Amino acid sequence: MSAPPDLPDVVARAFDVSRKAGYVSFCRNETGRLLAALAATREGTMAEFGTGCGVGTAWLRSGVRGPDTKIVTAELNAKLADAAAEIFVDDEQVEVLSADWSTLLDKGPFSLLFLDSGEPSEVGVDSVADLVEPGGIVVLDDFTPCEVWPPIAYGRVDTLREQWLTDERFTSVEVMVAPDASALIATKR
Ligand SMILES: C[S@@+](CC[C@H](N)C(=O)[O-])C[C@H]1O[C@@H](n2cnc3c(N)ncnc32)[C@H](O)[C@@H]1O
């Protein structure tokens, strides 16, 4: 797959790396644009759990405004981490770690945290609440929009989504990024 021409350069480079690696588990462009828009509101350090081949990281990077804003991203699969690191080899604002996301537990607090190590991410609120600075944003994607409460997915209550939407440490919303896809945005109180 070649990248559409209207993508930010860094995202197009990430797609090229993904294609060479035969990797397709990247965030969709609608989510990417959401990440970029949110990243443009951020300073400090943003983090991503689950780099894949760096497409989500690239979207975040495309939104960064200032030279002091950093992104740190962790990928368990060393081959994928190496591939993603290629994209940012000349970029001092992005650090790709070949590591479990738990490596990032002592690198916070983060101004934005993109939880993308599962489908959807299995990382619960308790594991990361203290990693996010006040006013910081957590993003989770890969949800199927749901109009009922509690949210149902695959015939069961989606307890992860329910937890993120009700935890008192966060003010949260589920936003549809496409007719068949939604993301959660949770802001730390
Ligand atoms: C959905 S993909 C990531 C896509 C990427 N964030 C993007 O937007 O293009 C999930 C990735 O998380 C990685 N992963 C799974 N468990 C992990 C863990 N415990 N720590 C770090 N990465 C993990 C997987 O190897 C996989 O590459």
From TrEMBL:
Molecular function terms, GO-annotated: methyltransferase activity
Pfam families linked: Methyltransf_24
Keywords: Methyltransferase, Transferase
Superkingdom of source: Bacteria
Classification via InterPro entries: SAM-dependent_MTases_sf
EC main group: transferase
Name the record gives this protein: O-methyltransferase
Organism the protein comes from: Nocardioides caricicola
